[in-house]
Amino acid sequence: MYRPPLFTEDRLDRLHAVMSSTGLATLVTLGAEGLEANHLPLVLDPAAGPHGTLYGHVARGNPLWRHGGDVLALFQGPDAYVSPSWYPSKATTGKAVPTWNYVAVHAHGRLEVIEEPERLKSLLARLTTRHEAARPHPWAITDAPADYLAAQMAGIVGFALPIQRLEGKAKLSQNRTPEDRAGVIAGLRDSGEPAALAMAEAMTGRD
User: Fold this and answer.
1) Strands 53-59, 34-40: parallel, antiparallel or unpaired by DSSP?
2) Residue 188 to residues 100, 101, 180: CA-CA distances in angstroms?
3) Does 97 score more than 70 pLDDT?
4) At residue 206, does pLDDT exceed 90?
5) Residue 207 has what pLDDT?
């Protein structure tokens, strides 16, 4: 990922926060026919290894788990279009063009296959707990009949992805003046769009 110094984000807690808040990640692998991208819910264990470990699963028929080699997991944080009309400096210089602000994290590593029933069940429980926790009546894998659950588990393969390298980028108008940044935040908020509001929040919380 191209990361000019001004937009580089290497703080582990910030990178983990983006990864943990992303519901669906993109896993890129090299298969027999070239690069392949799969879109998967992943869960992060930040304490497993120096950079953390990601866990997920795929259908047994998906060749991803047989690929081997390097894997790249992509996490997309907030992103939004930035209009040049939001820069106060445009009114005086006219020197402004559109751009796009965004936050992204790339996690590199190699997959470790998980097929042992108890480890796989634990992985599924962790994924389910993450996405059900906020619900008033969370569903748990123990709610499903044991034989049904066993049959479903037979059709999937779990994996761990110990992270060997992390890259983060936060393009949040750091290359603009404080006045222009304030103008962007105001413009994003005025739009009222969820993605724009999320970007305004990311820009406000940036230090």
Assistant:
1) unpaired
2) 12, 11, 12
3) yes
4) no
5) 62
Taken in order 46, 127, 17, 76, is the CA torsion positive or negative?
positive
Enumerate residues 6+ apart whose C-beta is below 8 A from 147.
Answer: none
Pairing mode, strands 53-59 and 99-110: unpaired
Distances (CA, A) of 82 to 65, 94, 123, 180, 201: 39, 15, 39, 11, 14
The pTM assigned to this predicted structure is 0.92
Q: Are 169 and 7 in contact (CB under 8 A)?
A: yes
Rounded distance between C-alpha atoms, residue 202 and residue 170, angstroms: 9
Query: Are 115 and 159 in contact, with CB atoms under 8 Å apart?
Result: no
Amino acid of residue 128: T
The CATH T-level fold of domain 5-79+100-175 is: Pnp Oxidase; Chain A (2.30.110)
Which tens digits make up the pLDDT trace of 124-161?
999 999 999 999 999 999 999 999 999 999 999 999 99
Phi and psi (nearest 5°) for 4? -55, 145
Which residue from 55, 31, 72, 54 is spatially nearest to 157, judged by alpha carbons?
Answer: 55
Compute how many other C-beta atoms are within 10 angstroms of the C-beta atom of residue 15.
26
